[in-house]
Amino acid sequence: MRYDHLISAAQLSRADVEAVLDRAAEIDADPTAVRERHAGKVLALCFFEPSTRTKMSFDTAMKRLGGETIDMGSVESSSVKKGESLADTVRVIQGYADALVLRHPAEGSARMASEFVDVPLVNAGDGAGQHPSQTLLDLYTIRENVGLDDITVGIMGDLKYGRTVHSLSMALTNFDVRQHFVSPESLQLPRSVRYDLHQAGAQVREHADLDEVLPELDVLYVTRIQRERFPDEREYREVAGEYQIDATTLADAKESLAVMHPLPRVDEIDPAVDDLPQANYFEQAHNGVPVRMALLDSLLGHTDSQSP
């Protein structure tokens, strides 16, 4: 990759994406080949919001590369509780680590923090902004199941606050992909994201009803309505549960359809779908380890003597 930090999916060219995904496939096939590549290096996990998959998969990825992790812990148990600024926090922590992974509730926080550190920083989610490492594992899952060219992708649910959606839709513009966006009117893509997609040459096709496009889709990317992002609880209740997938919903879908979800889910995918061949979201979550191993390997670099 050409960058010291990974802040936004807009940074990623097709060549960048393919390099990480190809490396992830090599690692997936033989994880032991890179086991000691980054022995002695330390990854700092700085999570100002809750996380399960992202945090644990970065932790696992670094350890499988032979390195170690340190964890800032909860906000309540850190100096942030005393009023320390994000800039000061990352300035201090970079002195303990060779790279940082940052999740923060404020959009733009990762870009700001990257200006204060000299080690690689990965944006693990900045509010309703971006989540580029999730996008890389999403692309890996799509490539493994249906390929990344001449496909039709439907993205459904919370498109306004969904940072995974904002990152994925931008990264897909590097490929021959037809994108359809399905959501309530109040949760459509933000104007800024729509503008960026148009600038990248994508045609934004928006729908209120999944049935309009489901038979065409090769991928259905379902997202959770993000209660924690809504400024008004009443506004959340108006749309909660409006879009749900069950076996009946998928009756008209292609047998080869890949149903994906960045997780966690609430009620937007019926658990009965888990047993259908179209369900790919647990595979998607598992892909976080080899993809993040490949990403960290790229950002941290290695000497020739460490090459397998």
What does this structure look like?
The chain is 32% helix and 14% strand. With 308 residues, the protein is of the alpha/beta class. The strands form two sheets. A five-stranded parallel β-sheet has the order 7-6-5-8-9. Strands 2-1-3-4 form a four-stranded parallel β-sheet. Helix 1 crosses helix 10. It is globular and about 55 Å long. It starts with 13 loop residues before the first helix and ends in an 8-residue tail after the last helix.
Rg on CA atoms, Å? 19 Å
Largest sheet: 5 strands, parallel
Shape: globular
Using the coordinates above, name the CATH class of the largest domain: Alpha Beta
Structural class: alpha/beta
Helical content band: 25-40%
Strand content: 5-15%
The N- to C-terminal Cα distance equals 19 Å
CATH superfamily of the largest domain: Aspartate/ornithine carbamoyltransferase
Q: Please report the total strand number as a whole number.
A: 9
Give the topology string: H per helix, E per strand: HEHEHEHEHEHEHEEHEHH
Mean pLDDT: 91
The CATH architecture of the largest domain can be given as: 3-Layer(aba) Sandwich
